[in-house]
Amino acid sequence: MSKRVAVLMGGWSSEREVSLVSGAAVTEGLRQAGYDAHPIDLARDPRDLLDRLTPRPDVVFNALHGRWGEDGTIQGLLDILAIPYTHSGLLASAIAMNKPQAKLVFERAGIPVAEHVVVTRHQLASSDPMPRPYVVKPMNEGSSVGVRIVRNGANLGALDDGWSFGEQVMVERFIPGREFTVAVMGDRPLAVTEITTDRGFYDYDAKYAPGGSRHVVPAQVDPGVYAESLRLALLAHRSLGCRGVSRADLRWDGERLYMLEVNTQPGMTPTSLVPEQAASLGISFAELVAWMVEHAECDG
Prior knowledge:
It is a single chain. The chain is built from ten helices and twelve strands. It has three domains: 4-87, Rossmann fold (3-Layer(aba) Sandwich), CATH 3.40.50; 95-113 and 176-290, D-amino Acid Aminotransferase, Chain A, domain 1, CATH 3.30.470.20; 116-173, Dna Ligase, domain 1 (2-Layer Sandwich), CATH 3.30.1490. The two termini are 24 Å apart. Strand 8 (178-185) and strand 9 (188-196) form a beta hairpin. The protein has helices spanning 16-32, 46-52, 73-81, 90-97, 99-108, 121-126, 204-208, 223-240, 273-280, 285-294, and strands spanning 4-10, 36-42, 59-62, 116-120, 134-138, 148-150, 168-173, 178-185, 188-196, 214-216, 245-252, 257-263. The chain is of the alpha+beta class.
C-alpha cells in the first residue's frame, strides 16, 4: 500500500503564490512516484489543519515558504502530532530563518559572512549604519522579500515606503561579484549554480518570473572555488542542524566566498534551483520528492 502524503502549501505568508506552485508540482511528482498525495492549502486555523490531517497521513511534505511555514512554527505543530515531515526540524528552521542568528552560527563554524548590524527603521531613516553600498533585509523573510540595496544617491526615507516587515532590520555590507547557490541533499552537496540577472540583483521577481534570471549549472568557475562552495554549503547545513534538503546562497567577490543564507525550504517550482541541480545529476523531480518523503522525520 502506498504511503499517504499530505502536501502543505499556500498559507498566508508573503510567499503564498510561490508555495502554491511548489505544492502543485510536488503533488504531481509524488503521484508519479506512486504516493497517495493530497494537497492542503493551509488556512490560519489549527483546527482546520487537524481536521484535514484526518485520517492521519504517513508523512507531511512541507511545501510552505516564508514565515509560519519555514520558521519552525508548523514544524513545532507537526512535532506535537508526531507526524514525520520533510525538510529541517523546529530549531534549525527557526535559526536559519532569523538572519542575524544564522550569521552567528556561521561565524562560529568558521564560515565567512558579510559585515552586518541590526538597527531600527528609525535609525536607518536618519543615518547610514555603514558605508554605502549596503543591503537592507527583513530579519526573517525568505525569497529576497523586502530586500533592498542602498547605493550612493539613494534616499533613506524612501525605504519606509511599503515596508511591512517589522521595526528591526538587518543591514549588511554589499558584496560585489558573482552569486552562487548550492543544494544539499542529506549529507551530499549536489552542485554549484551561478545565477545572473539583468534586474541588478536576485530579487523576488528574478527568482520566480520566467526569464527573470539565468542559471549556469555547473557554474563555470575555478575548481578550487567550486569545491569550496560545496564545502561551505555542507558545513552550513550541518552547523544549523538541517536535515533533508537545504540550499545555501553565496557571493564570490573574486577573492573570497561569503555565505548569505541557508534556505531550509527551497522552492520546488518549475524555475527552482534545487530540482535543476538534481536533474543535472540525473535525479528526476519524482525521484527527488520521493527521496524527501522517505527521509522525513519529526522530533515528536
